[in-house]
Specification:
Blueprint: H1 3-19, H2 23-30, H3 34-48, H4 50-89
Helix pairs in contact: 1-3, 1-4, 2-3, 3-4
Protein name: Sporulation transcriptional regulator SpoIIID
Pfam family, one: SpoIIID
Keywords: DNA-binding, Transcription, Transcription regulation
Length: 90
């Protein structure tokens, strides 16, 4: 594995470990694509640092387990804002 990729995997893994950010949030913060971040965290990190990969895997599993809740909350918030905007213009 190229040294630059190894370094990136470690940086992304430590970022998730320290902040608990989602793959999407890490991608946005770092400027890498979501697919690159996901591949680095789920596949490549295992080859670089197994212990960190296990911790990151647990965090990602947690995010995956609550994604339906986050989606529902986002939709609820969207409709609430639309409703408020409609009331203002009426």
């Amino acid at each position: 594995m190229h040294e630059q990729i190894r370094k990136r995997c470690l940086e992304l893994g430590v970022m998730v470990q320290e902040t608990g950010l989602t793959v999407r949030a890490v991608a946005k913060k770092t400027g890498y694509s979501k697919s690159t971040v996901h591949k680095d965290l789920t596949e490549r990190l295992k080859l670089v640092n197994e212990a960190l990969a296990r911790e990151v895997s647990e965090i990602l599993a947690y995010h995956k387990s609550i994604r339906h809740i986050r989606g529902g909350e986002a939709t609820k918030q969207m409709w609430k804002l639309k409703e408020e905007h409609t009331e203002e213009t009426s």
